[in-house]
Amino acid sequence: MNNLCGLPVDWAATGSFLGGIGALIAAGAAVFASRTFKDWKRQKVAERRMEHAEKILAAAYRAKYNLIELRSPIHSGMERESAGNS
Question: In which element (H, E) is residue 2 found?
Fold first, then answer.
């Protein structure tokens, strides 16, 4: 034991104390990483849902257009051009 400011220092106890602080910091980092991962996962699931919704919406518009084509197969070229531009 060495003297620090006139008081004896137990370096083994100091090392144990610092090890305990390190363990608490590591636990806090693990909790933070877990939350970050959950947020990232939630965002990715939301992105996938949006992609599926966009694909479904596009398919619905294509189906609607195809049904219109089936119901009235005779269109003039001008009508097809105006339908394609809008």
Answer: strand 2-4
